[in-house]
Design brief:
Helix content is about 35%, strand content about 20%. It folds into 2 domains: about 200 residues, no CATH class; about 45 residues. It is α+β, with helices and mostly antiparallel strands. A 6-stranded mixed sheet has the order 4-3-2-1-5-6. The N terminus and C terminus are likely disordered.
Length: about 280
């Protein structure tokens, strides 16, 4: 596997995970769950100790799903946005009972989720400073909803959301940021699976008090100043006006409201949709 820049330092067989005591407000986490059918014994799945050395983002899901001839996932991939001591929001797609079956998008307000029995653990994906929380949270809300259209695999949906969110806040106009350019989805999948396989046994027993939390090797920080610095002047001005507008209209939808304001839509073109 050819790894870009910083990514080549990650070795899943030598990497030591740094565990955190609690969630951090304004952070997005990947939440891994044991599927209900496996957790409650309706089907069995053999989880390896480590992911295969040749695992790839483009092939992992198909190989895992067909390991026993079943088109089922070995983990449910969900996202969690932590707002503060009061809790946060879970984003997920869940299979419904329609015929033919498909997946529906859900956004659920929760208080304490670390004691869910079948939760394998949480991986912190991005950290947001207080000044940028509102912008990032709206981006997460819209991206998770839009990516759910037509998705039938939680793995595909979650990784698509992660890619789009990172792409949305990607530095522009030639500015270089190593944390962005070093991101490799296949290496990220290896990191996630190494973490998940190491904690699956405790999750299957269902007796663990609190699920583990660890920052991703690819975790990155977003601040309002650095976000503005990565944009050319017209987009900086549009971003500032958009922030002021939403402070006065907190209940408005981030994406729809921006497109319904013609005087700002032209300058924000690409800012809202580059996800």
């Amino acid at each position: 596997m050819t790894l870009p820049k910083r990514a080549h330092y990650f070795d899943p067989r030598r990497h030591t995970y740094a565990y955190e005591q609690d969630f951090v407000p304004g952070c997005l986490y990947l939440m891994l769950m044991v599927p209900d059918s496996v957790f409650y014994g309706e089907r069995t799945h053999d989880y390896p100790a480590l992911p295969p050395e040749d695992v790839r983002y483009t092939t992992y899901d198909a190989v895992a799903a067909n390991s026993k001839g079943e088109a089922l996932e070995e983990f449910d991939w969900e996202l969690y946005w932590h707002q503060g001591p009061e809790g946060g929001k879970i984003y997920r797609i869940e299979k419904n009972d329609n015929a033919p079956p498909n997946y529906g998008y859900e956004r659920i307000d929760v208080e304490d989720i670390r004691n869910i029995p079948q939760c394998v653990g949480f991986i912190r994906l991005l950290s947001t400073r207080e000044s940028a929380v509102a912008d990032v949270e709206r981006c997460v809300d819209w991206t998770t909803r839009s990516a759910a259209q037509g998705c039938r695999r939680t793995f595909a949906w979650a990784t698509m959301c992660i890619h789009r969110i990172r792409r949305h806040f990607h530095p522009q106009e030639g500015l270089v940021a190593l944390d962005f350019y070093s991101f490799d989805m296949s290496v990220f999948v290896v990191e996630v699976l190494t973490f998940a396989y190491g904690h699956i046994e405790a999750a299957m027993k269902g007796k663990r008090i609190r699920s583990p939390i660890t920052p991703s090797w690819f975790n990155f920080d977003i601040t309002h100043n650095t976000l503005k610095a990565s944009l050319p002047a017209p987009r900086c001005n549009a971003l500032s006006r958009r922030s002021r507008w939403f402070n006065q209209h907190p209940e408005s939808d981030w994406y729809i409201a921006a497109k319904n304001r013609p005087q700002m839509a032209a300058e924000e073109d690409g800012l809202d949709t580059a996800v």
